[in-house]
Amino acid sequence: MTVPFGWYLFLSALLFVIGAVGVLRRRNAILLFMCIELMLNAVNLTFVAAARHLGQLDGQLFVFLVILVAAAEVAIGLSIIIAIYKSHRSVDVDDLKLLKW
Amino acid sequence: MTWLVFVLLTVVALASAVMVITQKNPVYSALFLVLNMLSLAGFYVTLGAPVVAAVQVIVYAGAIVVLFLFVVMLLDLRKSIARDRSLGYEGLLAIALGSLFVFTMLLVFWGASPPAGGTVSAVNGTMEQIGKGLFQKWVYPLEVCSVLLLAAIIGVVVLANKEAGQGK
Fold first, then answer.
1. Residue among A79, A74, A67, A72 nearest B149 (CA)
2. For chain B, which terminal residue's Cβ has fewer other Cβ atoms within 10 angstroms, N or C?
3. What is the pLDDT of residue B28?
């Protein structure tokens, strides 16, 4: 007796929403990245569950590409955060008004 | 048995995700993120994707979270921790809209039926199957991703070297 596909979709929707609430709630830029990782993980769970549901391997392969892009994104994002910290002495997104006037 | 594993992993995944967004200290958030990723790796094993589970543990729990911890420990975050405010109106709005989203997912996908065409073949994501898929059917997206990784490496080096370059 396997767990139906709907439960996995429900779980990954919950995880995605927790990540989205975290992005809106936290003010620390590093925490924002962690919440984005939570959301990406929720999507990965959907891919793998759909691969089993449809009986095709493509979902699992796409998860590899998502993980790869997530790794690149984290590396670039964290180095940008460090560069911002060097110039502003803060990673609080309320302090960063570079693009506002 | 499968239900027991599913429920246990679900409890761990949801609890650790909530802890990630509620902890004041970013180090604790990163450690709960590791727990969340390990529970998702457990889901992948039960879904017939052992290779994806291994990559999840190695890349996410191993590499990405270590990167997070390095940056958290490099920066002085005391001011930011003290100022992180509690749930404001954005947070309440996010929870309300998120509940709506979850409810919609529930309605749309609750009766997700197997695809037309009768029986579904069992997916077995062995290393051989994954390798064949990645390097035959999906080889062009994989190559594009390798270029993306190269660009990310160069970008990180340029960003990290910025101050030294300006000093010349």
1. A72
2. C
3. 92
